Amino acid sequence: MEFDLNNQGEIDLMSVKRMMEKLGAPKTHLELKKMISEVTGGVSDTISYQDFVNMMLGKRSAVLKLVMMFEGKANERNPKRSGPPPERDIASLP
C-alpha cells in the first residue's frame, strides 16, 4: 500500500522505481520494465497484489499459495460491511 501511489491495488513503473530507490537499489527504466515483466509473466505493465504475493512466496511455497487462494475465496463470500458497526450493549461484550 505504501508504494501504490494511485490507490488502484497495483504497482506501476514509477512506484517500483520509488520503492527500489527507497531500498537503496535504484534501477534504470529498462531494468524496472524487465523486473515487472518477470513478475507478471509479461502480461501486464503493473504488478497486482496477487503477482506481488506470488513473487514473495516463490515457487516452493505451494501450501502458502493455497492458503492465499482460499483466503481470496473466503473474502468473496463474506464481503466487508460498510457503514458504522452495529450497536452493542454491555451484556454482549466478551
Mean pLDDT: 77
Instruction: Give the tally of β-strands.
Output: 2
Q: Strand portion, in percent?
A: under 5%
Shape: elongated
> What is the CA-CA span between the terminal residues?
33 Å
GO biological process, one term: actin filament bundle assembly
Main location: membrane
Organism: Malurus cyaneus samueli
Domain EF-hand: 1-26
Describe the protein in words.
With 94 residues, the chain is mainly alpha-helical. Strands 1-2 form a two-stranded antiparallel ribbon. The protein is elongated and about 60 Å long. The protein starts with 9 loop residues before the first strand and ends in a 17-residue tail after the last helix. The chain is built from four helices and two strands, in the order E-H-H-E-H-H.
Summarize the structure.
With 94 residues, the chain is mainly alpha-helical.
Task: List strands and helices in order, with pairings.
Elements: E1 10-11, H1 13-22, H2 29-40, E2 47-48, H3 49-57, H4 62-77
Antiparallel strand pairs: 1-2
